[in-house]
Amino acid sequence: MASRQDSQEDPSDAGSTGLPDFGDNIDPLTFEQILEMDDDEEEREFSKSIVFGFFEQAEATFVKMDASLESKDVAQLSSLGHFLKGSSATLGLTKVKDACEKIQHFGAYKDETGTIEVPDKELCLERIKETMEPLKQDYAEAETILRRFYGPT
Q: How far is CA 113 from CA 57, 73, 110, 120, 144, in A?
């Protein structure tokens, strides 16, 4: 009984939805806000449609990012980074959001924090390329976690 009481007192625990430990891939408080919009906590049709729609959107965006890297279109990369940053932030995908924000900054000829100008296009492209691999890995980890959470489709 004491452990149940402890979990109720600790706001860092899973919460009322019984969320699994998402590690540092997914912010549970943000994700729980999406889950609260579900009418049925068993089916979770609403949140599932948002999450699975994000998967499609992210994968299409990665294809566009790869093409933009190939054509050295830093402005498009910045725009795509900004776009995916917003979508991932909505779901609480913190690592994906952070990487996309870096890409947004690099594509705007700035450092990863967005505070220092970096007027070297090739350097910005190299930094974007270096950020893409961990971005895709972080996305794949979050996707695996969320697909497991929702179960078979």
A: 25, 20, 8, 16, 28
Phi, psi of 110 (to 5 degrees): -130, 170
pTM of the model: 0.85
* Token pair recorded at residue 36: 């609260």
> What are residue 113's phi and psi, to 5 degrees?
-90, -15
Reported as a single tens digit per residue, the pLDDT across 28-45 is 999 999 999 999 988 999
Rounded to an integer, what is the distance from CA 88 to the centroid of its chain?
A: 4
Alpha helices (H) along the chain: 2-9, 28-35, 45-70, 74-91, 94-107, 121-150
Q: What is the mean pLDDT of the chain?
A: 90
Q: Token pair for residue 1? A: 């009984």
* Cα 82 to the center of its chain, rounded Å: 12
Residue 127 tokens, joined? 């930094």
Contacts of 113 (CB under 8 A, 6+ apart): 105
Length of the chain: 153
